[in-house]
Structures are given as C-alpha cells and as structure tokens.
Specification:
The protein has a four-stranded antiparallel β-sheet. 46% of the residues lie in helices and 17% in strands. The chain starts with a helix and ends in a 12-residue tail after the last helix. The chain is built from four helices and four strands, in the order αββββααα. It is of the alpha+beta class. The chain has one domain (14-143). Strand 3 (66-74) and strand 4 form a beta hairpin.
Length: 157
C-alpha cells in the first residue's frame, strides 16, 4: 500500500511540475516575442541544478546596442522574467567586467554566454547545445558504466 501511495504522489508531483514548467515556458515565450518584435534578441543562459538557473534576453538595435534587457533567475518553476537595468545603450560585444560588476556571478555568466552566442552567430556559426545539468549527471553516470575504447563483443555470423 505504501509503495502505491508513493507512486501516486510521485506521479502527481511530476504532472504538477510539468504544468508549472509549461506555464514558465509560455511566460518566457511571451517576453521573447515582445522583444523580438522590436529587433534582434541575444539570449544567454547558465543552467544549474542546485543554484539559481539564469537566463538573459537582450533586445539589440542595428548598431548592436542593448535597447532593453530582461532576465530570469531562480531555482524553481516559479521564477519569472524581470527587467534588467543598467546595460541600455551599451554594445553587447563591448561589455566588460566593469559593466557587469553590479550583477551576481550567475547573471554575469549568463551575460557572458549571451556575448559568446552573439559573436558566434555574427560570424555565421552555429551555437553548440549546452547540456542541461541533469544531462551532465546522466552522462557522468553512463561513463561510469562504460569504458571508452573497449569494443563490444557480439556474435559473428
């Protein structure tokens, strides 16, 4: 009986988290669309499991100057996008440490990621996928159970 109740509680928790995650993505899409209607948008992200995940959105003009910035930072699906003040009028590719000194380390990391993404796209490259924190854990666990360079033995016909 305990096992069945535990499974039901886990299933309900999963569904609730899925719903809140969907609402959070919808919230992000609304803000992204608002900024995208005004011009190009550079996105920076710093995903984590334990600490606050961070995402920044920079709406850029044709001179690569930041016209508006927003960010989302938090540990839960209740995190919401907020306006980020202090970077308006600055060129995204010229932001330095002195421009970012007033922001926390996680936000600085997301801003650096937005700069990197911007530079790669400007050069015509493609953005590499940042594995989610959970995917990093899965890969690490998988690597513990598999050895690189070992050939799998199979049946020969």
């Amino acid at each position: 009986m305990f096992f069945i109740m535990l499974l039901i509680i886990l299933a309900v928790g999963f569904v609730v988290q899925y719903i809140f995650g969907f609402v959070q993505i919808k919230h992000f899409t609304k803000h992204y669309t608002e900024l995208r209607e005004k011009g190009r948008v550079a996105i920076g992200r710093r995903p984590t499991i334990i600490r606050s995940g961070t995402l920044v959105l920079f709406q850029l003009n044709n001179k690569n100057e930041i016209e508006e910035s927003r960010y989302m930072q938090g540990v839960t699906v209740f995190s919401r996008i907020k306006h980020l003040k202090g970077l308006e009028g600055k060129k995204i590719n010229k932001l330095g440490e002195e421009d970012l000194a007033n922001y926390n380390k996680l936000l600085q990391g997301a801003i650096h990621n937005a700069q990197h993404t911007f530079r790669v796209v400007q050069a015509g490259g493609e953005i590499e996928q940042i594995p989610s924190p959970m995917m990093k854990v899965v890969k690490k666990v998988n690597s513990m159970f598999t050895k690189k360079g070992v050939k799998k033995h199979g049946l020969h016909s």
